[in-house]
Give the backbone structure.
Amino acid sequence: MKIICIGRNYREHAKELNNPVPEKPVFFMKPDTALLQKNNPFFYPDFSNEVHYETEIVLKINRNGKHIEERFAHKYFDEIGIGIDFTARDLQAEQKKKGLPWEIAKAFDGAAPVGKFVSTSRYPDIHNLHFSLKINGELRQSGTTTDMMFSFEKIIAYVSQFISLKMGDLIFTGTPSGVGPTKIGDHFEAFIEDEKLLEFNVK
Ligand code: MG
């Protein structure tokens, strides 16, 4: 499986990092070794002093496809979850300055914690979903999918023009504003609506 991540999909987040608001989705990938499941702890990497959390709705692809049309894209996922796109912001800043790829800052082991996946059918409208992150019991990030610049369906249509999607692939769909640093000892809890779907410690 592969993990595809969308960058700069919420206007306020693009602004907080002084990035231009994109005309097309921006995407990058994380390898399967980045996946962190079952609420296992995240081990803070020793190569960074500034690991940031980015809380994101994650789609689980349920069938294979390429060149998927936007109007059919909803057939390619029926479960969603919540995940953290951990980013070594200090390394990413260096890469951005030099115009180099981001993998060193985004693809490291454990950089993609994901929680329990749930059926999309339990939500009246997945385009109007509230999601949030608490660290040590304190609200740190909160967003709604209505603020996405590129919808789940647009993302699937766009990415599948370049890369075939396969059953089991995950798509991180971008973070709202409020990203920030984490540290050893933090306790993460992430929610879709009021339901906690992900919880882990930073060690
Ligand atoms: Mg992100």
